[in-house]
Amino acid sequence: MISDDGCELWTSTTGRGEPILCCHGGPGLWDMFGTLDPGPGFRLIRWDQRGAGRSAPRGPYTIERMVADVDAVREWHGLDRVAVLGHSWGAHLGLLYALAHPERVSALVYVSGVGLGHDWHEEFKRKFERVLGERHRRWAELRAMDRDEPEERELAVLQWTADFVADGGRHAEAMATPWFPINYEANAALGEEMRTVPEPELVEACRSLRVPTLIVDGMADNRPRWAVDSLERALPSVTRVRLPGVGHVPWLEAPDAVRGAVTDFLEQYVRPW
User: Fold this and answer.
1) Is the dihedral angle over the CA atoms 268, 231, 69, 1 positive or is it negative?
2) What is the C-alpha to C-alpha distance for residues 28 and 42, in angstroms, rounded to an integer?
3) Which InterPro entries match (predicted)?
4) Which of 5, 55, 118, 218 has the most CB within a 10 Å radius?
């Protein structure tokens, strides 16, 4: 598809039924929802955000532009309103889209997001280093060097291994297949812009959001789940599902639990039957 500013974006639809527009994590990564099963009666609209994956390598890499791209994907698929599901950075993007266009979002599913504040990073770094253990030395070595493409993939797989409680290597390899270059420019630009928005400003905006929201947390996520508490308190219509013993990518570690939570929630508000 072509966005309103002429950027070519890759998009794909899988399944049949009521649409769910997916926003993948990153920033600077690509769609990894290929194994996400939301249950019968739903279809996934997937896409690669600009600058990454199968989409065109061009900016601008701003939150305003990314929100506009979400709307462009919705419009290109011919939808007036749609349920939006986001993971990690994509959960934040989905929330920002709902805040900008609440009339176009029937429901929001916020999976493994990092909340509205910015003070969770130090705890995350400590947990990440502890989980990697002896492998952290190799991770740091790769981070510090000029990397070729195989070393880029090795670094990503090693880093993503820490996002799981069990079978981390296998799940991380699946996430890295197919492999695309990581867009570090987009990652840095969007990460910095997110840090410029004060938490109280986002809390105030969320208080008036009437879009029903499901928060899904893997309680063994290295990113502290208390960081999402202020979001939960601010939203007028919110359900929170906590999955014990599950890490940052819950549909890979606990697919049945995620499918049940998403289906039960969307049946209340989207009603595909």
Assistant:
1) negative
2) 27
3) AB_hydrolase_1, AB_hydrolase_fold, AB_hydrolase_sf, Peptidase_S33
4) 218
Q: How far apart are CA 65 and CA 113, in angstroms?
A: 20
Q: What pTM does this model have?
A: 0.97
Q: How is the chain split into domains, by residue range?
A: 11-120+183-269, 123-175
In angstroms, the first-to-last Cα distance of the chain is: 29
Q: Torsion-angle region of residue 26: left (phi > 0), alpha (psi -120 to 50) or beta? A: left
* pLDDT beyond 50 at 273: no
The CATH homologous superfamily of the domain defined by 11-120+183-269: Alpha/Beta hydrolase fold, catalytic domain (3.40.50.1820)
Instruction: Give 196's contacts (C-beta < 8 A, 6+ positions apart).
Output: none
When pLDDT is averaged across residues 97-114 and rounded to a whole number, the result is 98
Sign of the C-alpha dihedral computed for residues 178, 179, 183 and 188 taken in this order: positive
What's residue 271's pLDDT? 63
In this structure, which amino acid lies at residue 93?
L
Q: Which runs of consecutive H residues, i.e. helices, occur in the chain?
A: 63-76, 89-100, 121-132, 135-144, 149-161, 168-175, 184-195, 199-207, 229-234, 250-253, 255-269
| DSSP notation for 59-106 | ----HHHHHHHHHHHHHHTT-SSEEEEEETHHHHHHHHHHHH-GGGEE
